[in-house]
């Protein structure tokens, strides 16, 4: 009977070792995935900053064009009034 108990215990220990090995492999995969996601996040953050800067620049240019158009329209209105 004690031999059967030892066999059951050995089976449980082996099962625990197998489970630990599987979990360790999953942890390694998750660490790799986390590292890849961190790199992707870093790249996206950089891209976002560049796009924000470009957007700010384009908005500034848009404002300048609006001001120029207003000035030109104002000059055209003045010319019409004098004619």
UniProtKB/TrEMBL annotation:
Transmembrane segments: none annotated. Residues 6-82 form a coiled coil. GO terms for biological process: division septum assembly; FtsZ-dependent cytokinesis. This is Cell division protein ZapB. Non-essential, abundant cell division factor that is required for proper Z-ring formation. It is recruited early to the divisome by direct interaction with FtsZ, stimulating Z-ring assembly and thereby promoting cell division earlier in the cell cycle. Its recruitment to the Z-ring requires functional FtsA or ZipA. GO terms for cellular component: cytoplasm. It comes from Motilimonas pumila. Homodimer. The ends of the coiled-coil dimer bind to each other, forming polymers. Interacts with FtsZ. Belongs to the ZapB family. Keywords: Cell cycle, Cell division, Coiled coil, Cytoplasm, Septation. It is found in: Cytoplasm. Gene3D superfamilies: 1.20.5.340. It holds the Pfam family ZapB. HAMAP family: ZapB (MF_01196).
């Amino acid at each position: 009977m004690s031999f059967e108990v030892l066999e059951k215990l050995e089976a449980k220990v082996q099962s625990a070792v197998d489970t630990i090995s599987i979990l360790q492999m999953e942890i390694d995969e998750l660490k790799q995935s986390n590292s890849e996601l961190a790199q992707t996040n870093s790249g996206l953050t950089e891209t976002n900053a560049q796009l924000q800067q470009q957007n700010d620049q384009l908005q500034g240019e848009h404002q300048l064009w609006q001001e120029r158009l207003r000035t030109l329209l104002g000059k055209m209105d003045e010319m019409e009034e004098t004619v």
